[in-house]
Design a protein that fits this description.
Strand 2 and strand 3 form a beta hairpin. The protein has a 4-stranded antiparallel β-sheet. It starts with a helix and ends with a strand. It has 4 helices and 4 strands, in the order αβαββααβ. It is of the alpha+beta class.
Length: 106
């Protein structure tokens, strides 16, 4: 295990809803994820990646994987002045409340 993998923290942001729930994938990928990266890279966000299910169905509609330098970077990003703009942008692409979870190794 490398030192990076020992200290980096992965946060998953998931959006779950019905097949007809409003979720604008284009806005999410082209606007929201760049906003997240621009806003939080200064605090230690190193990478954001979006995953979508192959078809439109009820359940998980999108997953965002955010890799931070360490736990301090996560705390700094989510409590930063930029966090309010990131959170406000969510309403532009969905009405679904995002759920956040930290990944831990098994």
């Amino acid at each position: 295990m490398t030192r990076e993998s020992e200290t980096s923290v992965t946060v998953y942001v998931t959006y779950s809803g019905s097949a007809g729930a409003r979720f604008d994938r284009t806005w999410y990928v082209e606007r929201h994820l760049p906003l997240v990266m621009t806003s939080w890279s200064q605090y230690g966000l190193e990478e954001v990646t979006a995953f979508f299910p192959a078809g439109r169905q009820t359940g998980t509609l999108a997953i965002c994987q955010c890799r931070f330098r360490d736990q301090g970077a996560v705390d700094a990003a989510f409590s930063s002045p930029e966090a309010s703009a990131v959170m406000a942008d969510v309403l532009r692409f969905t009405d679904i409340a995002p759920q956040r979870a930290r990944a831990v190794s098994l």
